[in-house]
Amino acid sequence: MDELEHKYEVEVKSTEKRQKIPDNVKAELKESGMMDDKGKLKLKGVSPKMLKRMKQEYVDCPILGDGTHFIQCFVCSNFQSRVMGNVLCKGDPLK
Ligand code: SF4
Q1: What angle do CA 93, 94, 95 make, to 5 degrees?
Q2: Which residues does ligand 1 sit against, CB inside 6 Å?
Q3: How far is CA 84 from the centre of its chain?
Q4: Contact of 51 with 39, CB cutoff 8 Å
Q5: Three-state secondary-structure class, residue 5
Q6: pTM of the shown model
Q7: Nearest alpha carbon, ligand 1 atom 8
Q8: What residue ranges do the domains of the chain occupy?
Q9: pLDDT tens-place string over residues 9-61
Q10: DSSP one-letter string for 39-76
Q11: Cα separation, 39 vs 37, whole angstroms
Q12: Closest to 8 in 3D by CA, of 95, 55, 76, 56
């Protein structure tokens, strides 16, 4: 199988601290129907258990900077796939 084209492999890290999804990302999630008005996430194919874990995860993103919430990464246009605890990231500039 061909490997997906990507520029970076970014390690997914976990924290016990409470992480906040930035407001602009929340707005985007709501717009695309991935978050309801109460701020509850609705990601396709993601079980509540997985979602709970994802909320504790972050990446030191080469584009957006250290400590980027994994949910933000998951819905990022550069996100290709998650393989063995790493995100395959296209690494394109983000607006
Ligand atoms: S997919 Fe997006 S958020 Fe995730 S590491 Fe790449 S640029 Fe950063």
Answers
A1: 125
A2: 10, 59, 61, 63-64, 68, 72-73, 76, 78-79, 87, 89
A3: 15
A4: no
A5: coil
A6: 0.92
A7: 61
A8: 8-89
A9: 999 999 999 999 999 999 999 999 999 999 999 999 999 999 999 999 999 99
A10: S-B--TT--HHHHHHHHTEEEEETTTEEEEEHHHHHTS
A11: 5
A12: 76
